[in-house]
Amino acid sequence: MCGITGYIGKKGNAIKTVMDGLVALEYRGYDSAGICYKDKDKLITIKEQGKIANLKSKLDFNVKSNLAIGHTRWATHGEPSKVNSHPHSSNKFTIVHNGIIENYMELKEELLKNGYSFKSTTDTEIAVAYIDYIYKKEKDILKTLNKVTNIFRGSYALGIICEDDLDSLYALRKTSPLIIARGKDENYIASDVPAILKYTNKYILLDDYEIAKITYQNIEIYDKDLNLINKDTLEFEGTYESSIKGGFEHFMLKEINEEPTVFENTINNYIDENFKNIPDLSKYKNIHIVACGSAYHVGLIGKHLIEKFAKIPVYVEIASEYRYKYNFYDKDTLVILVSQSGETADTLACLRLVKEKGIDTLSIVNVVGSSIARESKYVMYTKAGCEIAVATTKAYLSQLTVFAVITMYLTNKILKTEIEKIPSLLKNIINEDYKYLAEQIHNNKNIFFIGRGIDYYLCMEGSLKLKEISYINSVAYQAGELKHGTISLIDKETPVIAISTDKDLREKTISNIKEVKARGAKVIFITNEDIDGDFYDYKIIIPKLNEILQPILVIPTLQLLAYEVAKLNNCDIDKPRNLAKSVTVE
Ligand code: M6R
Fold first, then answer.
1. How far does residue 439's CA lie from ligand 1's centre (Å)?
2. Does 207 share its domain with 302?
3. Cβ(583) to ligand 1 under 6 A?
4. 92: alpha, beta or left? (left if phi > 0; alpha if psi -120 to 50)
5. Dist. CA 78–CA 118, nearest whole Å
6. Which residue of 67, 115, 299, 574 is most buried, as measured by CB atoms within 10 A?
7. Separation of 581 CA from ligand 1 center, angstroms?
8. Cβ contacts of 554 within 8 Å, gap of 6 or more
9. Active site residues per annotation
10. Which of the listed residues 344, 386, 400 should we mutate to test ligand 1's pocket, taking the one with most ligand atoms within 8 A of CB?
């Protein structure tokens, strides 16, 4: 999704700092970029469609500037184009904006009646004009910004420059994340921590309706009643190095290679000789799990494990559905929200909805201090570190780990010996060569994943991973369901990736694999037992573990297979088209 960076300082390197920040946020996905900087007493805005490199080629990095805001845009209102890119200006104001101003049409009408005209089709141009419109009446920047927070509906994080105060940078937020970072004689704004890590790891989280007035020396934060407030300065645990590729060809590959450590860090946070840092979950009689994308797939595995081993009924739903349907709660319900970013708009909306009903919430979140983490009653952090590739890998594995922990906690049994084996088993699995398998399938237009039970849920994630980074259409199916329609798509050489780790369902799954094999499918069989037979073309054997931990060993294979296919097809692996890392709009 869109990225914001901003800088105010004495060194005169505002353009470079803001551009470094935008480069660090590239992973969030974007289709155009722009910057506004102060050159002596003038503001200069330069924008370009496409990659940040296009924008960079238009900039003079020798210009000494003390103030700048930058933006990478992921189109929501209006096509990706230079005119729609940010920053947008209106008279004295220039802004960059993440999120959506939902009532922008209403505001536009009012502005048109008052003599404003517009070049772009964005809600952001309306927002900046509206700020200017209010400022003409208020004649005070803080009062103006405070007033618009009561008028703008939707979600927004704004970086703002006003020509009447070029010694300050302003920022405000509602729902979309924004941080204010501290340096020495320089301060920053950013929509995500990696943007500032090259310069500082100290930052303040801006909360909804708060406004920041930032000079090179001071950061002032005002609450919704315009009272000056004190906020804690946080320190990001990771390093700049952790947010760069470190010798790997892609962030995705680097992050898969971090999985053994991520597993250890996550498990060690909750288990030593005993369980620790876990809220009392045993008191709940029913559980809802709500999430999007891969986090939803983890939720399905969580459901399978909790129901099978702890015998607690679990209902799982995609957040964008859950928030608009009737849900059944009672006083014994726990709602678990799963999110890597902790900022996914639909998941956050569900959390708020559930809280309003007085239901207890637990979030499983990676980004420390993110909105979902802060607003939940309980939080269990996944210790995946900074995940940059759009396709989640290590964060997914860390979420699987937390659900394994929850299942062990609810059944009061620590699978200590197996846990100890996992890091080295993961290393071996990750070091296998998946390229030869990718070569068998990368030219196909349709690929199927089949499995039963927990293996089907793994198929869903394997299929999503392949789709999102290789652009090959793939579908995950419950192995027993194919014959009710989908099997008509199976043709000679159609790749079918069949997963079977659940011993109890193995015979049934193998029968289904035989059905597709009989119709000419090219079968890649992923299993945890060395089974011979003529029902597959290729076989991958994953070391066998207790079912609670088994998915942790299956997933790297699916991630690496997708990675190798995407690589063979020359896809933009870390930044797949049309996708964003953190989906902060509905
Ligand atoms: O940050 P979240 O975990 O809430 O994000 C949820 C999904 O957007 C995310 O898992 C998405 O499906 C990934 N791109 C999948 O790789």
1. 27
2. no
3. yes
4. alpha
5. 13
6. 299
7. 7
8. 455, 458, 499, 501, 526, 542
9. 2, 581
10. 344
d(CA 233, CA 123): 32
Ligand 1, atom nearest to 392 Cα: 16
Both 236 and 271 in a single domain?
A: no
Output the tens digit of pLDDT for each of the chain's 586 residues. 689 999 999 989 999 999 999 998 876 667 899 999 999 989 999 999 988 999 999 999 999 999 999 999 887 777 788 888 999 999 999 999 998 899 999 999 999 999 999 999 899 999 999 999 999 999 999 999 999 999 999 889 999 999 999 999 999 999 888 999 999 999 999 998 889 989 998 999 999 999 999 999 999 999 999 999 999 998 877 666 666 676 788 999 999 999 999 999 999 999 999 999 999 999 999 999 999 999 999 999 999 999 999 999 999 999 999 999 999 999 999 999 999 999 999 999 999 999 999 999 999 999 888 889 999 999 999 999 889 899 999 999 999 999 999 999 999 999 999 999 999 999 999 999 999 999 999 999 999 999 999 999 999 999 999 999 999 999 999 999 988 988 888 888 899 999 999 999 999 999 999 999 998 999 999 999 999 889 999 999 999 999 999 999 999 999 999 999 999 999 999 888 888 777 777 7
Q: 208, 242, 276: which is the final residue of a domain?
A: 242
Per DSSP bridges, beta strands 154-162 and 88-90 are unpaired
CA 574 to CA 398: how far, in whole Å? 19
Give the count of domains, the chain.
3
Same-domain check for residues 225 and 353? no
**Closest listed residue to residue 525, CA positions, set 505, 550, 544, 497:** 497
The residue with tokens 């700092």 is 17
Q: Compute the distance between CA of residue 291 and CA of residue 322 in angstroms, rounded to an integer.
A: 9
Supply 180's token pair. 């204010």
392 C-alpha to ligand 1 centroid (Å): 7
Whether the CA torsion 299, 301, 302, 306 is positive or negative: it is positive
Residue 456 amino acid letter: Y
Kindly state whether residues 13 and 25 are assigned to the same domain. yes
Q: Considering the entire predicted model, what is its pTM?
A: 0.75
Task: Report the CATH number at residue 210.
Answer: 3.60.20.10
The half-sphere exposure of 197 on its side-chain side, counting CA atoms within 13 A, is 17
Strands (E), 366-437: 378-381
How far is it, in rounded angstroms, from Cα 438 to Cα 461? Answer: 17
Which residues neighbour 516 within 8 Å (Cβ) at sequence distance 6 or greater? 448, 450, 482, 487, 490, 494, 496, 498, 523
What the block records as the tokens of 497 is 């990736």
Q: Are residues 238 and 250 in the same domain?
A: no
If DSSP codes are grouped into helix, strand and coil, which group holds residue 570? coil
Residues 227 and 132 in one domain: yes
Residue-range definition of the domain harbouring residue 386: 246-414
